[in-house]
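Notes to self after the Tuesday call (sharing in case useful).
The group wants a holo model before anyone commits to mutagenesis around the pocket. I volunteered. Ligand is adenosine-5'-diphosphate. Logging inputs and output together so the record is complete.
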Amino acid sequence: MNTQELWTAVLSELELQLSKANFTTWFRSTFIYSFQNGEVIVAIPSTFYKSWIEKKYHKTILTLLQDLSPEPIRSVQYKVETHQRPPEPILPPAPPQAAPVQFTQNRTVNNNSIVPPTQDFAPTTNGLNPKYIFTAFIVGKGNELAHAAAQAVSTKPGTAYNPLFLYGGVGLGKTHLLQAIGHEMIKRNEKTRVLYVTCERFTNDFINAVRTGRAKDFKDLYRNVDLLLIDDIQFMAGKKETQEEFFHTFNALHQQNRQIVLTSDRPPRAIIDLEDRLKSRFECGMLADVLTPDLETRVAILQTKCNEKGYSLAPEILLEIAKLVQSNVRELEGALNKIYAHHQLQNIAPTTSSVRPLLSSFNGPSNQKFVSARILIETVARYFDIKLEELLGASREKRLAFPRQITMYLMREELKSSFPNIGRELGGRDHTTAMHACDKIKLELTSNERLVHDIENILSQVRAR
Ligand code: ADP
Ligand code: MG
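Result:
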């Protein structure tokens, strides 16, 4: 891992946490300027942004760096700087006493699932979170296909669908289902060797293995499992060597009918910078999408979470929360915790009217969302001085295509709209068009100052309406 990769990891976490705030505004063009003896200096392009970030985000940045860096972090400082230096490598922590490279029964924990043999690049358990089991997963419209496929795979691994590829937006239960397969297979046969890793972990393990001359240990680890679960495979995009290695890992497992399950935020063909041969491998098993749960499912999920947490909230309160929070299950759970904590502290019973203002920061009902999408579209059209019909129309002229892409990007970032929805709102386009547009604008924002300004101006006009 070098400083650039570390910062990218921090930014992707921040992006998830700063739901409403305009992530791009504050963090575009930031990078790690230096990293020495645990002291990190983050470069920020202007004094104004620097003081804002110091004030508002320092704690979060520090915690994220501490979580993500292989080296201890002692302090984080900020510096106004626009010129990037070449990224510095961050060495992994000194390896512990050389561990014997072997799979033996006595090195297992809890059950006989796999415990990786080496400690410097491998997780120390099978990586599963005990919470993520099938019985804690509520099945409803939106996730029933993914759930059924996950169950089929766990009862008939290596034969039903291999690989199983689950995809969909954040917080919709992909990781939960992925890990439930692991738990279920261990439950059925405690000798099953299960390994769950994030794509990032796989990548880091591979890089470290190569650097420390332990490629064989890496292969021994990843190619000797019965079930390999890799989360968020979209992050393999653009990583050529890792893709190459994963291709071989995949084939080795697949040939022996070992089960592979992958998750991603989008279908394989929409992952840009992923080798075609991997895409076709991913598509040769089963693709299952996970969509946002409908109202009924959201209520059921809230009910289950209440039981788990020992909260007692009246059904009409749960219904109100489910109506107000539509985006994803993670936010739904966040909203539930917020409502519960607030009323507990005040020692009052929640009512529908006391709940509403507390959830104003979550996504509003869909008609409200519709209004904001309209406002966004209208604002962009006015900003670029083009007609609404032109923006939504079929012409691919550059003067229209670019504003259209910007609109798509803003709908994604600001309204958290799904790609199919963005496509629909923008004149009935395909969801892959929306995905490409968002990726393109995101990329362009890193180098095109003018675009950054345009977007800032558009946003301030939207907010002023
Ligand atoms: P993703 O990986 O798709 O971003 P996660 O699997 O991390 O989403 O899910 C986010 C949270 O929501 C987790 O705590 C998970 O247990 C919960 N969750 C998601 N879907 C469901 C569901 N259908 N039933 C119960 N809990 C769910
Ligand atoms: Mg996940």
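Two things stood out.
The longest strand covers residues 31-36.
The chain has four domains: 3-90, 113-118+122-290, 295-365, 373-463.
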